[in-house]
Amino acid sequence: MLNLIYECEQKGAFVTVLDxxxxxxxxxxxxxxxxxGIVAQMERRFIKERQREGIEQAKRDGAxxxxxxxxxxxxxLQLHSEGHGPSVIAKAMNxxxxxxxxxxxAGTSAA
Length: 111
What we know:
Layout: H1 2-10, E1 16-17, E2 22-23, H2 27-60, H3 73-81, H4 86-93, H5 97-110
Antiparallel strand pairs: 1-2
Helix pairs in contact: 3-4, 3-5, 4-5
């Protein structure tokens, strides 16, 4: 925001905020806008810090356990071991072929 105000001033324009009424026309208005920008930046940092702390606490409490698996990986591996191709498996499991390929590649690298 402050960069935008600076660019406007470089081109000879002034910025006026209607609510609260502040203008960059005078030095005092420029100081007020700078202070408001700094306060807003600090508040964003505080919010991010509180969010990070909340996420860490939730992880310690066991609230974050990862997402639910939408596809039965074992069934995909079983169908593949029975000789079915990725297209057939994808149709049977109602998922994309790419997801089948990912699971098959992960299954072979884990073995």
